[in-house]
Write a structure and sequence with these properties.
Elements: H1 21-28, E1 39-45, H2 56-73, E2 79-83, H3 88-92, E3 99-103, H4 111-114, E4 117-120, E5 126-132, H5 135-138, H6 148-156, E6 160-166, E7 172-174, E8 179-183, H7 198-209, E9 213-217, E10 234-238, E11 241-246, H8 255-269, E12 273-278, E13 298-300, E14 303-307, H9 312-325, E15 330-334, H10 337-341, E16 351-354
Parallel strand pairs: 1-2, 2-3, 5-6, 8-9, 11-12, 14-15
Antiparallel strand pairs: 1-16, 4-5, 7-8, 10-11, 13-14
Length: 356
């Protein structure tokens, strides 16, 4: 079932490492480093729940897409797939030998949202700062997925540090250098944090990520299951730099288009350099609810894993943009259309464990 429909019925740009305000944070406390920094491994989740995936054929397609992503990342860094022991045999039949399986029960695939948020400090320490997943405001079954972050932290013997927030990692974008951006609709929402003001949510997010500044834009409430996660629209690629996909001809009657333009204006007004790439005009999947996000890529060791949608010109434009932003990395593009039909993408399905 589509995540949206569910509730309705230039030259090379160098990549950078740790610097700026978060360098100071590293010496004094925990923070989330840049995603493009070195990883120990990538975590992913195996989708299985038949209350979520009522169509067996579509579940098979989704599992294959997740396997394709995992097998590709495993060519660059270790991958751990989380799945209940009873699901290991079926998962193993699709996964390469380079992908490790852990007995951590799952329902769905969205490890960015339900998985652990790893933080590091300046002394080689590693912990998990915990934002409690609640099925995007109890819109989806989450008995198992709500426990994943805690289960992984326990298995690794890491401290689980509560943030006092309900929400999802895909709802906030971080540069690892002290700056966050998010849509209010995914956080200042009665389905996640009914007793907290936006300022209180901001303070807790800044503490959870070890950041010192946040940019908000309004987003969209109630039109998709995530209440418009920012990681499908705009991503940091370095200090002061954002890569963003926008339609060439925005529809002013589409709330996502108008909210995206508002986010663009907000980021530019805040002084960020925003590199805009178009959305595909003729993707393989023609559903109006299909999420065709080039911005929802994943940075792993030595590579960028991104989507292609079968529309040659914008697919190439996106690939060229990723090459500019990450000139020293291999750009690998995959057909992950089932995830787009569910309203997400590759970044939504992955969670990095930074190297310390």
């Amino acid at each position: 079932m589509d995540r949206r429909q569910m509730i309705l019925g230039g030259g090379a740009i160098a990549s950078v490492g740790l610097k700026g305000s978060s360098a100071a944070m590293a010496a004094s406390g925990f923070y989330v480093p840049p995603e493009e920094g070195p990883h120990q491994r990538t975590f992913m989740q195996w989708p299985v729940n038949r209350r979520v995936y009522r169509d067996r054929v579509f579940l098979d397609m989704t599992q294959q897409a997740i396997a394709d992503i995992a097998n590709t990342i495993a060519e660059f860094e270790p991958v751990t797939m989380l799945a209940a022991a009873d699901d290991h045999a079926s998962a193993r039949s699709r996964l390469s030998a380079n992908v490790e399986l852990w007995d951590v029960p799952t329902e769905d695939l969205w490890c960015r949202d339900a998985g652990p948020i790893f933080v590091v400090d300046g002394a080689g320490g590693l912990a998990v700062n915990h934002i409690q997943f609640n099925g995007w405001g109890e819109k989806q079954v989450n008995r198992r997925d709500a426990r994943i972050a805690a289960n992984v932290a326990e298995r690794l013997g890491l401290e689980l540090r509560p943030s006092g927030l309900r929400g999802e990692g895909g709802g906030v974008e971080h540069d690892g250098l002290g700056l966050l951006m998010a849509h209010e609709s995914s956080w200042a929402n009665d389905n996640r944090n009914p007793d907290l003001s936006r300022d209180e949510i901001e303070a807790r997010l800044l503490k959870a990520y070890g950041a010192d500044r946040m940019i908000w834009s309004a987003g969209v409430r109630g039109e998709d299951i995530t209440d418009y996660h920012i990681d499908s629209l705009a991503r940091f690629t370095g200090p002061g730099r954002v890569l963003m996909n926008l339609p060439d001809a925005p529809n002013t009657n589409d709330p996502f288009h108008t909210a995206a333009l508002d986010t663009y204006d907000t980021l530019v007004a805040d002084g960020l350099t925003v590199d805009v790439i178009p959305e595909p005009e003729a993707p393989r999947v023609s559903s109006p609810d299909f999420v065709a996000s080039y911005a929802n890529f994943y940075a792993c060791n030595g590579a960028i894993i991104a989507a292609q949608f079968g529309d040659p010109e914008p697919d190439q434009i996106a690939r060229d943009a990723l090459s500019r932003h990450y000139p020293d990395r291999e750009i690998v593009t995959l057909n992950v259309d089932p995830l787009g039909e569910l309203g997400g993408g590759i970044h939504c399905a992955t969670q990095q464990m930074p190297a310390v």
